[in-house]
Structures are given as C-alpha cells and as structure tokens.
## 1
Amino acid sequence: VELPRLRVAVHTDNGIMTPTSAIQDVVRQAAQALKDAGMAVEEACPQALARSHTLAADLAAADGRAWVQRLLAHAGTTEVHPWLAANLSPAQGMSVAEFTALLEEIDQFRSAMLAFMEHYDIILCPVNALPALPHDTWRDAFRQGAFSYTQAYNITGWPGAVVRGGTSPEGLPLGVQIVARPWRED
C-alpha cells in the first residue's frame, strides 16, 4: 500500500448523535496526521449513515431476540444473567415479509455505502459519540445512537480498526475508527 495514494474521507459527526468535542478533536488530529503522511484527506460523510442505527436496531430485534437464546444454548446455559435480562428485553419479532423488506433496506444501505467508497479508500471517524460509559448506563446512549458509528460498519461487514487517539477530559481513552473498502484489510 502506497500511503500517498490513499484517499481518506473523514467525518466527526454522522448526523445521528454528535460526539463530544474531545472525540471530534481526536478525529481531526488523526486526519491531520494522515494528511501529513501524504494522504489525500477530505471532509465527507456518507449520507446513508443516517439509516444505520435504525437498521442495526431492527436487525437485532428481528427474530424477537431468539438469537440471544441460541447463544446461551451454544454456551451451555439457559440461565440469563439479570444484567442481560434487563438490557436485552424481548422484542416483538417480525413477520417473514417484514424481515425480507428489512434485508432489502440493508442491501440498499450497503449499495449506497459502496457507491460512496468509489471515491475513497478509507473512512476515518469516531468510534462512539461518547467516551467510555459507567456500567449499566449504556441503554440511553444506545437508544440515542451513540454506537451508530460502529453499527454502520457492522452492517456493511467492512474491515475496520480502532486506534487510541487521545484521552477525554475525564481521563478516559478516546478512539478513532479506521474503515477500509471491502476486502482491503491491507
């Protein structure tokens, strides 16, 4: 990989939940480091990201959370920890018609993301809208879309990595997410 030939799209806000200013600053500093290394860095955000949080949440609940029961069975237990029971409440499952419509929406999302990547090799963005959260406080952050920054690339299945880029005013680590095109782990 020739670093000066790489084209980088960078964004500090995906339009779902605005990250803290410290997180935005860390992403900007990382973008400057890539620019200093000779990469072409451009402020750009895929419009399709606006749908990522809803798609991820719908997919996680599509089977009424039967996937949680399968994971427990695979682990050899049927006993659900109270934390898991409180945080992954049962969901109303979808009909097959609703599920196939959701899969079509996910395919449209992936197509739009791939079209965006025609102009870039890498996306540089926040990992989360917030620094690390205290235990048992993630539900509200999840509902507001704080984790949508990684959910988007879980849906695409693209290779990504998280690198520590700094420290929050509270002393917590702040990461920067680097996402590449499909099949470009290099």
## 2
Amino acid sequence: MKLIVLDRDGVINFDSDRFIKTPDEWRAIPGSLEAIAWLNQRGYRIAVATNQSGIGRGLLDIAAFNAINDKMTRQLAQVGGRIDAIFFCPHAADANCECRKPKAGMLREIARRFSIEMKGVPVVGDALRDLQAAQEVEAQPVLVATGKGKTTLKEGGLPPNTIKHDDLAAFATDFATA
C-alpha cells in the first residue's frame, strides 16, 4: 500500500494563529486539493494527522471539527480526490499526551490502522513538530513552505533527511513522478 500522511492546517488549508474554528474559516491553499486528487489517481492513500488543541482549549467542539472536515472532504471530492482517514489530537499543549505532535502517537495509530510500517512513508507538515514526529517512526519528513513552513525553515533544526517543497502541489508533482 502506498500511503502519505498530511498535516491539515498550513498544508491543506490556510492556517490561523486564532485557530480554524468554523467551516467558514477553512480555506484550501490553492492547488492543495488538486494535489491530493493527483496523488489518489496515482494509487496513494492519504491520511491526515492534525493537532487540534483548540478543542482542548474549548475554542471549538467535535461537531465543529467534523463540520470543518466535511467541508474539506466535499471540496476535495469535487476535484476527484479523497482522504482515507483523519486522525487528530484534541488535547491542549500542556496535556502531555502521546498523540500530540511532536510525539508520534498519531503516526503509530495510522500504522496500526493501515497495517503498515511507517519507515519511509512521507509525512508532510509545515511545523518542526510534524517533522519530529515523522523522524520518531522513521517516516520521511517533508516540509512545505506554506503555513508556518517558511518560519520553520528559517529557524532551522530540521531532521537531517527532511525534504523541502514550496507547497503540497510541488511535493505531489515531484514525489509521484520521481
């Protein structure tokens, strides 16, 4: 099975320092939905692994989170794409849970659900914590310059084998044609 794991906010959609709390606030980054559809058409399954501390902070509830994801999957279906599974950590940063990136609990759960090894599986994110979680399970860390990506790149300290791309569309094109 060919699998790619994506962070959501900052990779698929525009991020906000005030959190994405409603479907109206969710806006796809140009080309991201088409990139997912393009990967699907080449046989890749897509899983999303996203920290959603806004839930733990009481800024949104599970119903709002699900409504946001419904909007995303509807828009994705309109361009011929799909997400096979969405994994999320609802805990606030101070919860010290195992699922919040940079810990790799969500990635381990993805491996269990899809019955695969994570070694070499691309994990695309815009923040250092996404890359650190990937490194912990020997997945391939991929940094995109959207969202917090430019700041992450500037701050440095990336895992040594991190692949860098301008956005999800550039990653998809380079990855699936390599």
## 3
Amino acid sequence: DVSQTFSETIRVLKPGGYAFITIPNPIAIHMLVEKITFPLRKKTALYHKTVSKKDLYQYAKIAGFSINQIFYHDFYFPLYSLIKFVTRKDIYWFKKAMRISLNIFDQVPIIKNFGSGIALIAQKPYED
C-alpha cells in the first residue's frame, strides 16, 4: 500500500530528515512495452502498482511531507535496456555514453516525461 509506505517513512525519519523516493515512470518507453507485452508473458506473483507523478506528490503531502523536488529522470535507461536485451550483455562504455548524451533530454519539457523513473525529495517538517 503506497499510503502506508509514506506513513511509515515519515514516522521513522527524524524531524528535518529527508526521504529520496524513486519509482518507475508508468509512461516511460520501457513501461509501455511492458504493458503491451504483459498478456503474452507468464503470470507471476509480482504486482506492480503504477503511480503517476501527481499521485506520488499527493501521497507525500497527505503523509505530512514538505516536497523539495519531484522530477522525471534517466531518459537513457529504456533505450539502453533494449540494447542490453538484444545483445545479452552490459556494455559499460556505451551505457556511460548514452547516459551523458541522452540525459540531455531530461531537460526538454515534453520528452523528459518519458524518463525511466520519477524521483521525489521530501522532508519531514521540524517539530514545533
């Protein structure tokens, strides 16, 4: 349960403490491929609840966090994952080159929405 996760996170943080939370982006390229191919794959007990950027923000606010930053990240990851899937190996120099070049898209307003994940930096308020 996402709301319970946020409640527990704020409970265990000391006042003024920070939480860095990152989740898969439900509209990332690799997530869209996963949704399309889901009916063809073998069923597992793993369940993936999709949470949007807006939902993540709301869960954090309801739990009592003050939001420092929320953003999409790692545009390169879905493309690199596809290459790794096809080649069946991790090509570290290529991954680094893709990270440097494609993360430029993390700055482009429309395109950045398709980054691999959503990150949230939130702070537990200080007690009065």
## 4
Amino acid sequence: MSSFIKVTKKCAVCGKEQVVAVVKSTNAIGYMDLDTRPPQDKRGVLPYEIQFCSNCGYANEDLATLVCDDINGVISLPEYQNIFNNNAINKTAKAFMLSALISQKNNVLDRAGLLYLKAAWIFDDLNQENESQKARSKAIECLSEYVEQSENLDNAVMVVDLLRRIGNFKDAKETAMQLLDFGINSLLTKILQYEVKLCDRKDAECHTVEELD
C-alpha cells in the first residue's frame, strides 16, 4: 500500500505555487513487465512521479528545481506548447511527455526515453493505442541514441521490447540477436531469448518476467 503527503511547491520557472502530492512510501509485489514497468502498488504511484505547473507547463520530478539553463527556450518551443495546450491529453501522460521533452532537448537521453516510456504506460491504461505507440516511438528514438553513445546494455534490451511492442518485429529480432552475441548476464539473456520467440510469433502484447523460462 502507498501513502502520500501534500506539499506546496513554487514553480522554478514562473513562481506560481502549486499543491502537489509526494509519495511517502510504497511497495511492489509481483513481477515487472519486460519493459521494466513495475507491478502494483508501485505502478499506482506513477501519476505522482512528475510534478506539473498548470500555469506555465513546467514538468519535473521537483517543480521547484530547474533542470536546464534555457528552460524558457524549451517551454516556448511549438512542440512543447502543442502538448501543453492539448486538453485531449491525459494530465499525467502530459506531465511525462513534457518532462521527457525537456530532458531530450537537454540531451539527457536516457531519462527522456524512460519518461516517454512511462507516458506510454499511462496511455496503455487509457486504451489510447495510437498515443502509446507515438510515446514508445519517442522512447525508442531517445534510448537508441543513448545506447549508441554509452553502449548501455540494459537500455539496449529495453529498446528490443519497445520495438516489438510497436510491431517492428524485424528490427526487434535483429537487435536481440546482435545483443545475444555480447554474452550478457543471464537475466538479460533470458529476456532477449524470449523476445526472439515473441517476435517469431508476431506478438506485440505486454509480457512479464514471470514468463521467462
């Protein structure tokens, strides 16, 4: 079970005060998805992970902290404003998308990719498949570039699942086979071997690590 406290934060960009909920404690019982989405109850605290200013649109884990020097330049971008002003987008998903875009423009690509992925999880729960696919594609873009720079195998394996989930079975399988040649740790190896089987079956559904052999 999760618990929360309410705190007042002053937006680091516009100065407006916002009352936000902060997670005090939580737990996770069960198995995570192949893309690292946690089980409940930890899954239930995702809406409180990003704090969002309804006045200027700034979104960050801590609303009172700036994450880049040119934050006003990022917020003023048309692509940022299009998301911020789109009332059809769920507020939680919007906060993740905006925070992701800030990180992407600040070249913090691993964080940006994970935030786009979390937005996709929110869209999944809302049965908004088109939006979840767009968010996953953004996550692939960021994490793929990050992997090229860092050779981070955990994120590389995550890209495989993201590719499979958007139905790009060819690239997902090819990437998985390439990664298996690296001789990575046993858990990642099992995940990749399972991803290959899922790609062969043209299976784009969500799966958990409980299913691994």
